[in-house]
Predict the structure of GNAT family N-acetyltransferase.
Amino acid sequence: MLRRLLNTDHSYFCLFQEQALQEFYKGVYNKHNNNSYTSGKFEIIKRNPKKRLFRVNFIPQYFNLVIKDNTNLKKTRLNSVEKGFLVNLKNYKNVNSYMLSQFSAKSRTKIRSNLKRLELCFKITYKFYYGSISKKDYEFLFKNLETLIKTRFLEINKEHQALKNWKQYRNNVYDMVLNKSASIFVIYDDDKPIDICISYHFENITINHIRSFDIDYSKFRLGYLDIYKQLEWSFEQGFEIFDLGMGKLRYKEEWCNEIYTFNHHIIFNRKKVLNYLLLAITKMYVLITIKIFKIKNKLILKEKSNNKLKVNKRCLFEDISLEKFNSEKVNYIEINVEAENNKHLRKNFYEFLYLNKLSKASTKVFMNTSSNKCIIKGTKKIQEFELTH
């Protein structure tokens, strides 16, 4: 019954993905830059006249949504447990000055070292699609991003929420990139996308919404490097807020300098007595939901602490001499690791490049013709390993 009488909108996506605002709001006030935006700036979401209550969820705390004057509508807030994480860039000159205040010297060195190592090992380019992108490039990147997400989340045995609405994202983001209400950031290894991020933009705000990376490059910590590069670009473009969105994750806690709680509104006609009863029921329902959410989180944390971490078997690399390599080379054939049938070798190969500070272009891989043994020959080191299944 309650669902038939309650209309629910996800404000976070309405504002940033659809650039839309519910018709009962007269505008949005941005607490971070003291700017106000009237409803005329947005697409208007009409309310369903059959609904008695209108619930607007996930309003970022830095936004104040103001009800129109001279109406019978009333706004009430609901309790919330969802946290948002953002980087407030306003008081910093560039990404380096921000990192100086946010990270220890050791962490800053690690991030820069990984960036240099990535660029040493591969032919790396960085590309922001913002205001312009061909349809061919767009479809290519979306297809690759979907593959990266599925591969990454299969590895950690989780479900990515964006995949549930993937068709909608694919249909909408292209035009948003062209009108600069969205951007796509890509790290390329030669012509191969290895890290892709989709962000939304509104005034001085960037929402880092969908992102994933090629897990074969995990050693390089691409997730940290793409944030670094996006913050660098955000300063250049004049953005002041880089919102990492909801969900408590380690990288968000390390990069953010502000944590906020999402607001939830219920809008109703204060002249209708029955609406107050429905409001009380809704608040009780939300309170019970929050308690269940907290209990589930505690059980998940307890389960994680009780379970032993599963460690994937790693290949053991063994140094071999040039003499041994030359004597055994007759039993090996040179292969292309980037070929599709050799993709299972890439993670070990890229780790070898990382550990030995070697370029992919000057490093060769040889496969034994009668066993699972491989040899990687770089300019500084030659190592042998055996694949395990």
Confidence is low (pLDDT under 50) at residues 308-313. The CA atoms of residues 15 and 21 lie 6 Å apart. The radius of gyration is 25 Å. The chain has three domains: 2-83+260-300, 91-239, 318-386.
